[in-house]
Amino acid sequence: MSTNQDHDMQRGLKNRHIQMIALGGAIGTGLFYGSAETIKLAGPAITLSYMIGGFVIFLIMRMLGEMSVDEPVSGSFSHFAYKYWGEFPGFLSGWNYWFNYVIVSMAELTAVGIYINYWFPSIPHWASALFFLIIITAANLVNVKMYGEFEFWFAIIKVVAILGMIIFGLLLIFTKINGQATGFSNLWIHGGYIATGWWGVILSLVPVMFSFGGIELIGITAGEADNPKKTIPKAINQVMWRILIFYVGALTVMMILYPWNQVGMDGSPFVQIFSKMGIPAAASILNVVVLTAALSVYNSGIYSNGRMLYSLAQQGNAPKSFAKLNSNGIPVRGVLISSALTLVAVILNYLIPGKIFMYLMSIAIIAGIINWTMIIFTNLKFRKAKGQAADNLEFKTPLHPISNYAAFIFLAIVVALMSTINDMKMAVYILPVWILVLWIGFKFKKSSESKISPAQKAK
């Protein structure tokens, strides 16, 4: 094992890798399973919810992109928060991002066992999870290009599947290939387009924001992009409209094909709709897709967590051992620790089946909101530090600083909404406790540093 003084991060990620990495982090459980909760809350107006949430996330991504293009480093907004805001913001944003993706990875890895059981019910959940954990972790330890290829093909499967569902759905809507053309009436005959009222649409913004969690992974890849000043802006601008097509387009077709109030909460709405419409083999095909989606998000989680621990170690906010890279420029220890922690989820879901998944989701939403809030305010600090030089930035945030404050107000509203939802309240209560834990950890770190002599620091 060599230190980062001997080896640097390798710039082996192409534009196609970076775009698919971002898609891989954002198209997963939120669409294939979590959208059932959003449909329940908003009805056909789920499409409006995704457009609102997607626009806010686009603004936040532009804020991150503005900084990442100017300074393409691994660790992304943790580095920027540390440099432009202060030591504690850098400490908080880095550890919170790492914690967020550990929680998300736990949920996704556990889901893998459930999906495998669809075909092979005799295989224990833990065995499937352990098998894929080893495979994905090994791929992340080879080199960054191997990770990029894994994620590229994982994401391709999801993208092709969603586009296939949209095209097939349009054929069902406009032609008689399944007996008769469906038409558009399901959008309004079951209570209207805004069937649950505006309050339902507003509440639906909470699970919608979980769906967009992970899109900020583009910023983490900046340190390993082969041409970050070109690939990062292109990836951010292209990925956002693609996600809106995949979410809004796919869900619009679903709402047209089938009555929204008959979808239910007992599985993926995509599987339910095509199965209930009598489409042969739909469940098996879609099970391949949801399995791939879970593995894709887990792959992205292991990648980003290893890089975040590397960045934290470089800042002095994590043990120095995490700042070591192997000969291929991989932060091996960070990858292995992050991978090992997700294994805890398999045990937890075995011991506490059922409810643990929803709790993990709500905590992930809160952690995601902390990440996005840090990006918003770090971008304000970044602009202030740049002064007049900010006029020459290559990839500017639209409507800065109005967009920053508007995005923050939106996120604050989402947190307030979570406090009104029974299954989400716990996460809101955890928010101040989690920040306090990080503050105590930061103070302990500072106290430990003060006891180190100048001679020891020089070493």
From TrEMBL:
<feature type="transmembrane region" description="Helical">
    <location>
        <begin position="156"/>
        <end position="177"/>
    </location>
</feature>
<feature type="transmembrane region" description="Helical">
    <location>
        <begin position="402"/>
        <end position="421"/>
    </location>
</feature>
<dbReference type="GO" id="GO:0055085">
    <property type="term" value="P:transmembrane transport"/>
</dbReference>
<comment type="similarity">
    <text>Belongs to the amino acid-polyamine-organocation (APC) superfamily. Amino acid transporter (AAT) (TC 2.A.3.1) family.</text>
</comment>
<feature type="transmembrane region" description="Helical">
    <location>
        <begin position="239"/>
        <end position="258"/>
    </location>
</feature>
<feature type="transmembrane region" description="Helical">
    <location>
        <begin position="42"/>
        <end position="61"/>
    </location>
</feature>
<dbReference type="GO" id="GO:0006865">
    <property type="term" value="P:amino acid transport"/>
</dbReference>
<feature type="transmembrane region" description="Helical">
    <location>
        <begin position="197"/>
        <end position="218"/>
    </location>
</feature>
<keyword id="KW-0029">Amino-acid transport</keyword>
<keyword id="KW-1133">Transmembrane helix</keyword>
<feature type="transmembrane region" description="Helical">
    <location>
        <begin position="427"/>
        <end position="444"/>
    </location>
</feature>
<keyword id="KW-1003">Cell membrane</keyword>
<feature type="domain" description="Amino acid permease/ SLC12A">
    <location>
        <begin position="17"/>
        <end position="447"/>
    </location>
</feature>
<dbReference type="GO" id="GO:0005886">
    <property type="term" value="C:plasma membrane"/>
</dbReference>
<feature type="transmembrane region" description="Helical">
    <location>
        <begin position="126"/>
        <end position="144"/>
    </location>
</feature>
<keyword id="KW-0812">Transmembrane</keyword>
<feature type="transmembrane region" description="Helical">
    <location>
        <begin position="330"/>
        <end position="352"/>
    </location>
</feature>
<keyword id="KW-0472">Membrane</keyword>
<feature type="transmembrane region" description="Helical">
    <location>
        <begin position="358"/>
        <end position="382"/>
    </location>
</feature>
<protein>
    <submittedName>
        <fullName>Gamma-aminobutyrate permease-like transporter</fullName>
    </submittedName>
</protein>
<feature type="transmembrane region" description="Helical">
    <location>
        <begin position="278"/>
        <end position="298"/>
    </location>
</feature>
<feature type="transmembrane region" description="Helical">
    <location>
        <begin position="20"/>
        <end position="36"/>
    </location>
</feature>
<feature type="transmembrane region" description="Helical">
    <location>
        <begin position="98"/>
        <end position="120"/>
    </location>
</feature>
<keyword id="KW-0813">Transport</keyword>
<dbReference type="Pfam" id="PF00324">
    <property type="entry name" value="AA_permease"/>
</dbReference>
<dbReference type="InterPro" id="IPR004841">
    <property type="entry name" value="AA-permease/SLC12A_dom"/>
</dbReference>
